[in-house]
Amino acid sequence: MNLYKNLSVVYHKMYQSLFDYDKEFDFYSTVLHNFSVKSVLEYGCGTGNLASRFLTSGFEYLGIDLNREMLDIAKKNLPNDNFVLGNLKTFQSDQKFDCALITGRTISYLINNEEVLESFKSIAKNVKNNGVLIFDAIDASSMFEDFDEEKKEITVGNYVRIGTSAPNLKTGWTWDWSSEYFEKKENELKSLGKDHAVVRAFIKDEIKLFLAMSGFELLEVIDKETYMWKSHYYVARKKQS
């Protein structure tokens, strides 16, 4: 995705306002303290917006991201040894963590069932027995009951994103998400680049089944406030092996 590569600086500047990272961290922190979590492995850590909060709060932390450009920004502001290039499906750590997080709806980019299972099974190897897995996912029921194909424009400071969605059900509850990013200069919009992705939403029972097949037990589903696309938090625990 171009957004996480050539447009990584634009992402970092725009999405700090689109996502309420303080509120999101407060949610994670509350759950983690309930489970006495001390060590956290974050998949899809991006430019380190949540990482800075975990480190400041005293958690042992490691962030994983697929895109070097995103990690380059994170490493400018935070210690380099807290970030590793890797992906959901294959990353393996020498350490087992109390908790794994998949943040920023990163699971949306696992568009077929094989990828979801492969990722969850890989994550399970990095989590201690009875450890916790928390992630957020877009709700397929609300998304596809009344699918909206209209253009959506969002402005953050001098940056503008214009995005469109179109159903694409070839691999599941998926759709095509295309967007173009602009910068306002002297009342004119200068194009900074385009981005395209196939994005997936999930039904709750799908998630429960994927987790069960990967050695996790679903504990709770919690509504998540979001600027776009209704989502849920999922809280699961790794079963004793």
Automatic annotation (TrEMBL):
Classification of source organism: Bacteria, Pseudomonadati, Bacteroidota, Flavobacteriia, Flavobacteriales
Molecular function as annotated in GO: methyltransferase activity
Gene3D superfamilies in the cross-refs: S-adenosyl-L-methionine-dependent methyltransferases (2.20.25.110), Vaccinia Virus protein VP39 (3.40.50.150)
CDD domains: AdoMet_MTases
Superkingdom of origin organism: Bacteria
Residues covered by the Methyltransferase domain: 40-131
Gene Ontology biological process terms, A to Z: methylation
Name of the protein in question: Class I SAM-dependent methyltransferase
Keyword Transferase assigned: yes
Keyword vocabulary terms for this entry: Methyltransferase, Transferase
InterPro entries in the cross-refs: Methyltransf_25 (IPR041698), SAM-dependent_MTases_sf (IPR029063)
